[in-house]
């Protein structure tokens, strides 16, 4: 890092806000399907500049893409993906180290798993570790720990991981980079600003995904909705511009999703960031209305229970339209909720342990 970057960064350390940047496999890959060095070079140059003003977390896919050429007759099975990720992670991190070294920015590899968010003590340790990275001018490059992640407990994709990190660190902005360059309407035009993710916006979503990545626009919009509901600005953009993050921050490219005001306490934000669960509760219309009024969830308002969760675990709350409306830390295990689904005045989750998006 040039001297002027180091000096400015030192004196501004305590005032820095957080930016999370998520790069998918498709957006950092060239036409040959392999990671593009020119794109990594561009990303490194701009993050070096952003690091003067912001604490940055880079969430990068690409490990499987980097590692799969080493797997003979690769077919994309779960075991092959795990093996490819194990091979590709060090290759990918070495590439980032090479280009960030030009700016004297050390790079740390941070492989995360679900329990780092759902267990509060581990969650707080994670935050402390990242703060140590930033205090020492180190850039954390994050990916899922695919080798050991249980298939039932995996992140749905890195859009989810990036969103949970944004919530964890109360980020100012979450960048989700995509090869299409933004969120498009039905005429394939990028919408510059979206202030509310409503049914009209959802109707524009094509339920597909890129050939390289696991996530599609539906995934991006789902987690964008969570982030903006908790006060985080989300920008979906591409990397084609000379300074893609700067021009996107200026509103000149991509789609900016405006944040909503949020008065949630730190623990409630942890509940939201711990929404990676193996359980789901579907509530009826009456219960959904009560939850919006900050009331507790009663078993009689529950229509369906999925998953084998136990006491104090965090579950997703869904309405009858199969939309995720929030999360809750339950007072009862799944079996007891099912047994009491027609019983009045039994609390499944207390209002203090419920976050509605």
Description:
Helices cover 36% and strands 19% of the residues. The model is unreliable at 3-13 and 210-215 (pLDDT under 50). With 357 residues, the chain is of the alpha/beta class. The strands form three sheets. It has an eight-stranded mixed beta sheet with strand order 3-4-2-1-5-7-8-6, with helices on both faces. A five-stranded mixed beta sheet has the order 11-9-12-13-15. Strands 10-14 form a two-stranded antiparallel ribbon. The protein has helices at residues 3-12, 37-50, 63-67, 78-100, 115-118, 120-135, 158-168, 199-202, 217-229, 244-249, 266-273, 285-292, 334-339; strands at 17-23, 54-60, 107-112, 139-144, 173-177, 193-194, 233-237, 255-257, 280-283, 297-298, 302-306, 314-318, 324-329, 347-349, 354-356. The chain has 13 helices and 15 strands.
Distance between the termini: 40 Å
User: What is the share of helical residues?
Assistant: 25-40%
What oligomeric state do these chains adopt?
A: single chain
Instruction: Please tally the helical runs, counting DSSP H or I stretches of 4 or more residues.
Output: 13
In one word, what is the shape? globular
The gyration radius over C-alpha positions equals: 21 Å
**Element order: H for helix, E for strand:** HEHEHHEHHEHEEHHEHEHEHEEEEHEE
Strands side by side in the biggest sheet: 3-4-2-1-5-7-8-6
Which regions contain 5 or more consecutive residues with pLDDT less than 50?
3-13, 210-215
- SS content category: alpha/beta
What would the average pLDDT be, to the nearest integer?
84
Number of strands: 15
**Strand content range:** 15-25%
Largest sheet: 8 strands, mixed
